[in-house]
Amino acid sequence: MKMSKLAVLFAAACTSGAALAETTYTLKVAHFLPANSNAQRNIIEPWCQRLSDESAGRLKCQLYPSMQLGGTPAKLADMARNGVADIVWTAPAYSAGKFPRIEAMELPFMLPAGAKASNPIIWQYYEQYAKDDFKGYKVLSIHGDGGMDIHTRGKAVASLDDLKNLKLRASSRTAAKLVEALGATPVSMPPAQMTESISKGVVDGALASWEVVPPTKLDEVTDHHSSIPAGEPAFSYTVLAMLMNARKFDSLPDDLRAIIERNSGPVLNERFATAWDKALDAARTGTPVEQMVAIDAPAYAGMRQAAAPVADAWAADASDKGLDGKALLEGARNLSAQAR
Fold this sequence. Notes:
By secondary structure, the protein is α/β, with parallel strands linked by helices. It is built from 13 helices and 11 strands. About 45% of the residues lie in helices and about 15% in strands. The strands form 2 sheets. A 6-stranded mixed sheet has the order 7-6-8-5-9-11, covered by helices on one side.
């Protein structure tokens, strides 16, 4: 008996649906740190495994650490936008000028120390003020590096006077402005270049998060680590982002998009925060006590006062570029104040 035309179409649809359900989608994930970094081992890899588990193996990740897809950290955001990678984990500040609004979260003494304290503020600021920075991307996470301290070789930094004539690595434009305001000379570079630059005397130290100290071996070339008083806002932050090519995300079946959605945003930010703070604490406690330099309250207050003009100058510069710099700065300060 011949099948009716309707039955043939129904069978074809079922076959097509079954084939779609069995299709495996591999996501190319690129970032700038080594494969043994905290970000890959404790966040990106478990996140990818979660996607695989929830999709019964239909979503998989192929990881490309240490810029294995080529280019420099400054190009990672473009690599996601252009489809060279499907997902990148990067610092927006590495792509100078492309993400101007989110820079407010990197201004001096803006955010509390620690990822659990700061990540919700960063995400809220992104949602209220900085979404236009990320048009063309599916934003999976916007989080921070837990706050930066000063790590130096040969000279301990406990006051403003100690910073004079020092050259310090800075991770971003705003961090460089802070270093300059404190009386030192900023030298911009990504984490991978810090250790060699200090060992060769190119710089005297680095403004950097404790989280990057072990994987970059920064502790092997520095012997002084200056920390702010407990409970006070951090010197500065590097904002980090996990960005997905929007076309790739839209091309996935509905059920796979839903899996990515429910494992991203604040959920992924919390995953970053948990692993980040654990790494921060481990790096600090693993450092010899005699290398730790406490910046006392008066010295800290002097540093904050010296850095105060940086935020106002940033707002004025943002306004010159067509943004409402004053509103962005006030919004950042209000969100930070509400979280205290």
